[in-house]
Each structure stands twice: as structure tokens, then as C-alpha cells.
Amino acid sequence: MATNATRIGVHSRRGQIMSDTVTRVEPHEQIVLVHVERRALDEQATSKLEWEVSQAAASQPGAPVVLDFEKVTFVPSNALGALVNLRNGLNLEGRPLILVNLSRRVHGTIRVTRLDQILKVYPTLDDALRHLAAE
């Protein structure tokens, strides 16, 4: 049987220890709030990000997942792909993936790649929460 983490697009890496976390999960009643703690998301950080977000999402089934990108300054193509994978998996469960606090550079990358058409992006966490409350 597939776990929630597997369903949302992450396959465990058996035998590989995922240390040096990339994220910090903040308790929140309405959402899964995940702060991305790295400035740049290289290949290893992206893999850990995908795993950690999947685990956080699995811990609160049904809740929207919000990624706070306040510290992130660079998002390469593999990280964009990971965001799409996470979004697609969560979408299958009827859950949104929301990005907040994007730097101008990261927001520009999301716009240029047209991912802003499939990813929900808000300037702040408060904006995202207001939008979720209005739905």
C-alpha cells in the first residue's frame, strides 16, 4: 500500500540517510507550514526538500501545504520540477501547494517558466491564509 509520501511524488531512498534538514515545519492549525531554510536549492537540497515536505504533508492529511521561501534566493530547474511533482501529488488528494514570501528573483523564475499558472503564489503567509479562508 502506498504511503502519503509516496502518493505525493516522493519515493524513499532506502539505505540513504537524509540528514542536514532543508526545512523547518512550524505547527499550524489550518495548514502544513514548511519553511525552506536553504538559500539555494542544489540537487541534494532539492531531494531533501521533496522528502521533508512529503513527510510533513503526510503528518497532516487533508491540510493545504504552504512553503515559505523567504530565505531562498535561487531555484534551479530540478527544484522547479520537484515543486511540480509535489503540487501534482497534493492535487490528487485535493490539497493545494502554496508558495509564499518569494524573493523577486525566485518569483521571476516562477513567472518566466509559467509555473505561476499551476502553482499558487502569494506575497505573504497572511495573504495565503486569507485566500484559503475565502475558498
CATH superfamily: STAS domain
Estimate the strand proportion.
5-15%
**Biggest beta sheet summary:** 5 strands, mixed
Total helical elements: 5
CATH topology: Transcription Regulator spoIIAA
Order of helices and strands: HEEHEHEHEH
Number of domains: 1
**Cα distance spanning the termini:** 32 Å
Tell me the helix content: 40-55%
What does the average pLDDT come to? 89
> How many strands?
5
Widest sheet: strand ordering: 1-2-3-4-5
| Cα Rg | 14 Å
Which architecture does the CATH hierarchy give at level 2? 2-Layer Sandwich
- So what's the CATH class? Alpha Beta
Shape: globular
User: Unreliable stretches, pLDDT < 50, 5 or more residues?
Assistant: 1-18
Structural class comes to alpha/beta
Structural notes for this entry:
The structure is a single chain. This protein has a single domain, classed as Transcription Regulator spoIIAA. 35% of the residues are buried. Helix 2 links the parallel strand 2 and strand 3. It has helices at 4-7, 43-59, 77-92, 104-112, 125-134, and strands spanning 23-26, 32-36, 65-68, 97-100, 120-122. Helix content is 41%, strand content 15%. The N and C termini lie far apart (32 Å). The protein is an alpha/beta fold and 135 residues long. A 5-stranded mixed β-sheet has the order 1-2-3-4-5. Helix 2 runs parallel beside helix 3.
Question: What's the short version?
Answer:
The protein is an alpha/beta fold. Helix content is about 40%, strand content about 15%.
What's the helix and strand layout?
Layout: H1 4-7, E1 23-26, E2 32-36, H2 43-59, E3 65-68, H3 77-92, E4 97-100, H4 104-112, E5 120-122, H5 125-134
Parallel strand pairs: 2-3, 3-4, 4-5
Antiparallel strand pairs: 1-2
